[in-house]
Design a protein that fits this description.
single chain; 321 residues; alpha+beta; D-amino Acid Aminotransferase, Chain A, domain 1; D-amino Acid Aminotransferase, Chain A, domain 2; 2 domains; 9-stranded mixed β-sheet; 7-stranded antiparallel β-sheet; 9 helices; binds pyridoxal-5'-phosphate
Amino acid sequence: MALTRAEEVMYSSGAHPRHRHAPEFEEGVAFMFGEYVPVEQAGVPITDTGFMQADGTYDVVSVSKGMFFRLEDHLDRFERGCDLFRMRNPYSRQQMREICENLVRLSGFQDAYVWYGVTRGQMPHTDRNDVNLYECQFYAFVIPYLFIADDQMREKGLALHVSQSYIRIPEHAVDPRAKNFHWMDLKLSLFEARDKGHDWSVLLDVDGNLTECPGANIFFIKDGRICTPANGCLEGITRLATFELAKEVGLELEVGRFHVSALEAADEIFLTSTAGGIIPVGSLGGKPIASNRENAYTRRMHDLYWTKRWAGWHGTPVAYD
Ligand SMILES: Cc1ncc(COP(=O)(O)O)c(C=O)c1O
């Protein structure tokens, strides 16, 4: 049976029609310096250290069928990220909820990608090394929901490449548990994968253990066990959701340290991300997945993820106008 065509449901089936919105918010809405503005007009000051030095942390929460998914989990993770990077969020938790809801309400999108982040702001004129002198800045925006892999790619399964040229930055350099602007290893590994004719990449640590992928966590299934790295990766919210789905389909969960050879011997492989949910992998390094069982568990969890979300699972409804 074909996978749930989430992109088609969102954009062409007419099932989730866009709500009323002002014409200036056609492309999306941003929030900065206390105001809501058209997304294409929003720009970060060039001297903001978020831009200059990747000095920031952020999060992305999605909305589908007019409901945020696991909003409180995203806000928790963001708070942890601010603490890890010693950032002071100028907005309270309740204000954050209101900003996120206002963005989606103003955009009218029923399926949306909501980004919010805090940077350390401008360098102080006096002592640049005093963390307390910085005035952190908050930015946020909403655009239509984004997929790492469209309906066709998810149906076929991504062609995954284990990066040969890059490793994931070690956790004692930039802690991946705080969502951060350090994307160079991820991006270069993606370009490397594309150069070799693959769709997406996965990065290892210095010892050859699995870490994560650009914008996604990695899972594999072997003999009824579902496995994902414990360290060296973001504690993804879709990963968290997958832990629940794995239980529902009868898989035993193992969160640990896995050498890349375990991936090569896997029965099924998939990625998880707010940008597209559960994303099946069809080949690794150009070879079909070992003992491919048609990605049976992955496909079930993929469909469960969407049907449950659209039925309100961990959902917070948006109050549209
Ligand atoms: C580096 C990285 N790993 C994993 C993920 C997946 O996390 P989530 O499921 O919360 O989107 C992301 C999300 O963008 C990411 O940037």
